[in-house]
Structure formats: C-alpha cells, structure tokens
Design a protein that fits this description.
With 119 residues, the protein is an alpha+beta fold. 34% of the residues lie in helices and 40% in strands. A hairpin with a 2-residue loop joins strand 2 and strand 3. The radius of gyration is 14 Å and the shape is globular. Pfam families: UPF0102. This is UPF0102 protein PY092_15875.
C-alpha cells in the first residue's frame, strides 16, 4: 500500500475513534456504491451521518471547498441514498467532514457537522 494510502487509513481510524468517543455508532466503513465511496457511515440521535475524512500533514493544508468538489458531494449523496434504501429505516441524513491533521507526533481532529452547508 502506498504511503499516502496508509496515512489515509490511519486518519480514518482516528476519525472512527473520535466518533465512537463522541457517542456515535459506526454502521459501515468504506461503503461503496458504483463509483462512490463513503469513508464512514455512523448513527447518532436519529441521524444517519455520512462522513468524509480528510487526512493531511500540517504543512499540506487546503481549503476544504477545493478538496470536496461538487462531483464528490454528488457521489456521496448517491451512495447515501443507496445505503438508506438498503437500510429501510426512517432516519434523517447528515453529511459531515472530519479533518485529521498530523502535527508532529499528535493528530488534530476537527468535526464539521452539516459540512456541505459550510463550504
């Protein structure tokens, strides 16, 4: 596995740990539908939460509006719709972004709820 893929998986695990510690139930990891992949699907307080994880080193920060493109939003929405249809439960869906930034030997984690409204 390439170094950036390994780092991305580590970032996703840090995000999962963060969500669990925040009371979220993890429902799926790396859920795929057609060309879309959702990093994490979680549930909390009646919400099905579709989570995109962005892992970066401290020196490589980008504006999230450039990282999460309209095409990515469309793919995430398509995958979320498919997952909800498979689940056959009445839950509100929310799209969140978690950034995991490696800063020396620690990880700074930020959770943006309803993220697509912020960008």
């Amino acid at each position: 596995m390439a170094k950036h893929n390994t780092f991305g998986k580590l970032g996703e695990q840090k995000a999962v740990d963060f969500l669990k510690a925040s009371g979220y139930g993890i429902r799926a990891l790396n859920y795929r539908y057609l060309n879309a992949e959702v990093d994490i699907i979680a549930e909390k307080d009646g919400f099905l939460v579709i989570v995109e994880v962005k892992s970066r080193n401290i020196g490589f920060l980008e504006d999230m509006s450039r990282v999460i493109t309209p095409k990515k939003v469309k793919l995430l929405t398509m995958a979320a719709n498919h997952y909800v249809e498979e689940l056959d439960r009445d839950l509100e869906v929310r799209f969140d972004v978690i950034t995991v930034v490696k800063n020396a030997d620690k990880f700074d984690i930020e959770h943006f709820e309803n993220a697509f409204y912020h960008f």
